[in-house]
Amino acid sequence: xxxxxPSFMDHAYALTGALQASGCKTVLLPPTDDESWNLGLRHSxxxxxxxxxxxxxDILKAAxxxxxxxxKSCYYGPSYFGPCLLPQYCLALHLxxxxxxxxxxxVMNIADPTNMKELGAPYMMRLALGIYTIDxxxxxxxxxxxxxxxxxxxxAVYQQILLDLENGLASGSFIKMIKKSVQALAEVQLIxxxxxxxxxxxxxxxxxxxxxxxxxxxxxxxQEGGLEVWPSSSLIDxxxxxxxxxxxxxxxxxxxxxxxxxxxxxxxxxxARWLVDRYFPDSIRTPQERQYHAVAKVSGKYADFWIDxxxxxxxxxxxxxxxxxxxxxxxxxxxxxxxxxxxxxxxPSMRRDMGDIPIGNLVYEGLKSTHNTNRIEAxxxxxxxxxxxx
Length: 390
Fold this sequence. Notes:
The chain is an alpha/beta fold and 390 residues long. Helices cover 55% and strands 9% of the residues. Strands 2-1-3-4 form a 4-stranded parallel beta sheet, sandwiched between helices. The longest helix is centred in the middle third of the chain and has 24 residues, at 121-144. The chain is globular, with a radius of gyration of 21 Å.
């Protein structure tokens, strides 16, 4: 196979690097643009969550290339175990591909435990370390971007970091590339290293809160409005939380022996994070996601922790950002997102518990909405006013 990976977020470079290290041929598709979006929209009903439309359009656009061979192509399909439409993505896309004569394309989640087992334990380790590392660089890059002395320098350095990390995963020089990349980003000239702007945290569904096409360049608009942006994690936090809470899940089901065995996995997750964290400076202001007991305690005040891991992490992240000093939080979601709707309904209660910190809810459906632009401008004004009056 040639594995085609959509650029749904920068963490896709970890997928391509880990696959290459396992001997696979990969193609990282360009980010979703208007052409691929319109292709996806043409072959969907238009009521799906918009990540699916982008996901569909990206492979349909790639299939138009003359060297694309459907029978030898595998497309990465994301999935998730929870109350979300993601588990239907692979099946729905396969039906569309069959309808347009591309049914020979294999659609598969190469981050699924069964498929990862086929690729081997080294692949799983590279993938986890790669995603977590890129996650840390993405947060750091987003945080310092408004303060760069030479416009465009942070973006250029960061893009090279992604390429270096991909190559490091593929070639076995990943730790070396982390050291090199940390030094490169630390050497970028900034006009203010202490960060004097109001700080805004971003929470919401994973795709919309990170993908710039999906959120219509939200980060850029907030930065242009005079704010510093603190992103949330990619789905790697869900994976780590799954490992940390597995012992409690088994215990709830009455499996004490399995619970004891699951506890042995927890040090491995901590070690994986330490292998990466030790190279990053303590001066990074964007907080890292907390672990199981803290997440369960915070989210449990507003909803049952066991409803869904992504929901619990989202609720925890709002308080997490507030305690780290955020002046406001933006909650973004695609339309009809079940987890997003729950978070939005609980936001007023969370706001009251956090000293009336501004929490804005933005719903994106793939359109460049003037309505959302107005809401962003109003939110920026609210944040600055609250900060001034404190």
